[in-house]
Structure formats: C-alpha cells, structure tokens
Amino acid sequence: MLQTGLAYHARSIVNYASFEAARAGSVAHAGLASMRLAFARAMTTYYGGGRNLAELADSFAAAQLDLATALRIEIVSPTRESFDDYHSPAAAQRLQTSARVLPSAQLGVLDCPTERANCNADPASNRSGQTLADANLLKLRVTWGLPPAKQVPLAGRFFTWALRTLDPDDEDAFRRGLVEAGRIPLVSQVTLRMQSDAIENAAILPRTRASGDSPAPAATPLPGCAPTDPLCTPDPASADTPPETPLSGGEDGTPAVDGNGSDGETRPETDSSDPTEDVEDTEDAEEEPEC
Known about the structure:
By secondary structure, the protein is an alpha+beta fold. The chain is 40% helix and 11% strand.
C-alpha cells in the first residue's frame, strides 16, 4: 500500500509536469528541447525542492541529470502524415527552417495553407485522417521511470519483478530499459491547442494504424419520439401490445371480402329468403383459416 501511494503521488507530479511541457511546446513550435526543459522545471520539487535559490538550483540540476535517461516525450499529434497533408512552404520560409511546418493561423476559415489551396483536407481520404484544425492539437505521451531511491525497498522490487514477469516480451525498448534499471514506468498524456506553427522534429510519431484505420461502428438509428416528449418514453400500448394480424382469406394475405362487405368476422344474423345463400355463406366461413 505504501509503494502504491508513492507511485500515485509521483504520478500526480508527472501529470502536472506533462501539462507544463505541453504548454511550453504549444508556444515553442512543438520543440522537444523546450518541452524537456519545462518538464524538468516542474519536477524540481520532486527531486528535493529548496528554500533558497541555491537549493532550487541543485534540485533542478539533479532533475535534469536523472531525466536525461529516464524521460521520453513523444508527440502523438500532429503526426508525420499531418505534415504530408498540410505543410506550408511559406511558413517554413518565414521561420527560416528547412523542416516542414504546420500553419496555426486562421484555422476557423482555412482548410488548407493559403499557398496549397488544393490539398486534401478530407479526413476520410487524406493520409493523416485529420483536418488542419485537428493537426494543430498538440498531443503528448510522456513516459518517466520512478527511480529506485523513491521506492519502498521490497515493494519496489516486487513491482518491477511483476512487470518483467507479466510482459517479458515488451516491444517498447525504452520502457523495457526502465524496468531493467529498477524503475517503475509511469505514463502521462496531455492535449493542448498549438499557439504557434509546429515544426517537424524527431519526437513526432507516424500515424498508427489503430488510431484511424479501424472500421467505424454501424450507425444505430434514433428512436422515433414525439417532439413534445423530451424523455423519449415509449408508448406502453405500442411497446407491450403485439400488433394485430389481419385475417387473410387468400394466399396473398389480403383480407377476404365477400359481396356483402364481410371481412371474415361474424356478423349479426339477418333474414334471408334464399336458403341456398345461407349455405354458401356457411361454407365460406368454414374455409377461412383460424387466427
């Protein structure tokens, strides 16, 4: 229980540091160095904090030293394919960079960069599966390893042993390296709107197949409800009472109608002067199928 509490305490600090990293990236063109620096500053208190500038500087230095090998920041969005669809040569020239750039201005009126008006802005058919506004959402996935010095001696070793046992073939080399080093991996994700033009860098991931290519679920029709019924309550009569099956007098299922307008139901007795007609009516009634 104590180790679990320490892990949750560390997770809350990592969530805050991840938000600070996203804030820094949103105004610094999604720059990885700016995000790592902001994350380290937010983690200073976890690595000791301080009561004066000298102590804070020492804690900040300790955080940077430890995070150099224990921190990974991945940009989940925009993806590589987002730059394929919406990169702006004019924005790259304005920022004086040779990397591809995503414009972040006038997203309410522009579907494509102004100099690429014919780009494919349809998420259903383009490579990124995003609109230009979607591509300007900065989504980060931050992975950090809880150091052994911050773990309960026996419980921490049990945590890492359980991770190695439950997932011995972990495909993530970085996460597997954290576990081998005795660290407990903690993952945090955060999303913010870009406030500057994103510049493509090594932290930007390609679009995963699971994120956009899975078939959409079948649409479920809405129930038919009257506009005056906000609760959309079904009619008890229609919900509990089965529909009546009309009596059929032929193979096509149409009700039998005789010359007297009879639909197969029993009529009141009427006087008839022709006994032959009464016999014919009786035979017709016997031939009708029972419901």
